[in-house]
Amino acid sequence: MLFFTVSRAQEAIAENMRNRRLAAGFTQQGLAKRSGVSLATLRKFEQKGVISLESFLRLTMVLDTLEEMVKATDLPVTEYSSIDEVLEAERKKPPRKRGWRE
Distance between CA atoms of 62 and 57, rounded to whole angstroms? Predict the structure, then answer.
């Protein structure tokens, strides 16, 4: 597993999105226009990895990866290996609605 810092993650995501843009055949100007994100914002994102969440999601929508981004933040689905595990899971409390850590 790679050790990611926030800065490295930003750079990797920006590079991945740039590659997706190029694979889809968009120029920076074309993607900016279709997404409603300013060209300056897109350039800053591709160079430094800095962008607002809303602008990032607009880009992912045009590049057809919005659903993947939403799924990436979802809780993992538990796979059961026996009926006992299923029954035990049903007896557990519902998910917490509040955090407990500060």
Answer: 9
**Closest to 52 measured CA to CA, from 33, 35, 64:** 35
| H helix count then E strand count, the chain | 6, 0
Q: Which amino acid is at 57?
A: L
d(CA 72, CA 69): 5
- Contact partners, residue 50, CB within 8 Å, separation at least 6: 10, 44
Cα–Cα distance for residue pair 65/56, rounded to 1 Å: 11
pLDDT given at position 1 = 52
Query: pLDDT of the chain along its 102 residues, tens only?
Result: 567 899 999 999 999 999 999 999 999 999 999 999 999 999 999 999 999 999 999 999 999 999 999 999 988 777 888 888 877 877 776 666 776 667
State whether residue 65 is helix, strand or coil: coil
- CA terminus-to-terminus distance, the chain: 28
